[in-house]
């Protein structure tokens, strides 16, 4: 009996298909490594073209080995030049240049601050009172602002940081807003927490610390409610209303450069109801001017 041969004209598709099959179905050793080192780290180190295919065809299988499952509400891959149009800007002093770039099949937002401070924010509601929202992202610091004094979280003088990610809890009265501010410092140790010099309702958490001479990407994932309880001492009384990110260097009058990618918002699966999450939704965009509290 003659064997039938099926040909695919594009050899790149053959290679990608083979890699996907090997990783998702035929390589328990790789899955063991993913379980040991973490899904995000392993995927992050893969070439972008393979990463996208693996996420598309094998993510459901790979997600089973994480410490918990996450139901995705919103993903910002920053894969298109128009991706930033859905974000709004809050200007503090001069405009930071935020632009979508591509490098070896990796898409991301580059933020360049030259003695300036402005943030990009996106309004989205996440139920933080009865569910467990999660935020994750990837970032890469290329240049830290130059400081003359010892780096501090709680002093306004030289309060410049290369990379910040915010989770914002709005309230009817602006002074009652609560904010979680995740930052990458140059010298303050990771794990340190503090209060913003701009408001007692803005709590700072150092997620990553130290210079990045090799310009490596790092992936972070945070339990929003757990972090809120840690820094505010109680559970959230309001839902999440927005997320934001910012690079600034206006206090030192120097410059800072960072990259952001794959901002994801979701819920821990144990908060599901009938297999579906209720309460994660995007806020409708309006022309109404609202003050968004973002600490610098």
Characterize the structure shown.
With 296 residues, this protein is α+β, with helices and mostly antiparallel strands. The chain folds into 2 domains: 11-67; 72-282, Jelly Rolls, CATH 2.60.120. 19% of the residues lie in helices and 36% in strands. The chain contains 5 helices and 14 strands. Strands 2, 5, 7, 8, 9, 10, 12 and 14 form an 8-stranded mixed beta sheet that branches. The longest helix is centred in the N-terminal third of the chain and has 16 residues, at 48-63. The termini are far apart.
Number of helical runs? 5
**SSE series:** HHHHEEEEEEEEEEEHEEE
Describe the main β-sheet briefly: 8 strands, mixed
Q: CA-to-CA gap between the ends?
A: 73 Å
Total number of strands:
14
Amount of helix: 10-25%
The CATH architecture of the largest domain comes to Sandwich
- What is the overall pLDDT average? 79
Structural domain count: 2
At the third CATH level, what is the topology name of the largest domain? Jelly Rolls
The CATH class label of the largest domain is Mainly Beta
In one word, what is the shape?
globular
Strand content: 35-45%
- Radius of gyration computed on alpha carbons: 21 Å
As residue ranges, the low-confidence spans are 1-8, 18-66, 271-290
| Helix/strand/pairing category | alpha+beta
């Amino acid at each position: 009996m003659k064997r039938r041969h099926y040909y695919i004209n594009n050899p790149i598709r053959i290679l990608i298909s083979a890699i996907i099959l090997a990783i998702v179905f035929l390589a328990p050793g790789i899955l063991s490594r993913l379980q040991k080192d973490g899904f995000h780290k392993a995927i992050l180190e893969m070439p972008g073209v393979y990463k996208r295919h693996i996420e598309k065809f094998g993510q459901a299988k790979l997600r089973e080995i994480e410490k918990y499952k996450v139901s995705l509400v919103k993903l910002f891959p920053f894969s298109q030049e128009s991706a930033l149009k859905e974000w709004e800007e809050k200007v503090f002093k001069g405009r930071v240049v935020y632009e979508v770039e591509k490098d070896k099949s990796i898409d991301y937002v580059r933020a360049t601050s030259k003695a300036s401070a402005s943030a990009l924010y996106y309004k989205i509601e996440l139920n933080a009172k009865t569910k467990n929202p999660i935020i994750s992202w990837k970032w890469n610091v290329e240049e830290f602002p130059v400081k003359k004094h010892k780096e501090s979280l709680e002093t306004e003088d030289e309060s410049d940081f290369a990379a910040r990610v915010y989770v914002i809890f709005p309230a009817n009265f602006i002074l009652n807003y609560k904010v979680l501010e995740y930052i990458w410092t140059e010298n303050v140790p990771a794990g340190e927490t503090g209060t913003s010099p701009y408001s007692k309702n803005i709590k700072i958490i150092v997620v990553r610390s130290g210079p990045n001479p090799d310009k490596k990407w790092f992936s972070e994932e945070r339990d929003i409610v757990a972090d809120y309880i840690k820094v505010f001492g109680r559970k959230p009384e309001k839902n999440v209303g927005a997320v934001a990110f910012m690079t600034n260097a206006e206090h030192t009058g120097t410059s800072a450069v960072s990259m952001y990618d794959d901002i994801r918002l979701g819920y821990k699966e144990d908060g599901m109801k009938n297999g579906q999450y209720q309460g994660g939704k995007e806020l409708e965009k309006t022309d109404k001017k609202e003050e968004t509290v973002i600490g610098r």
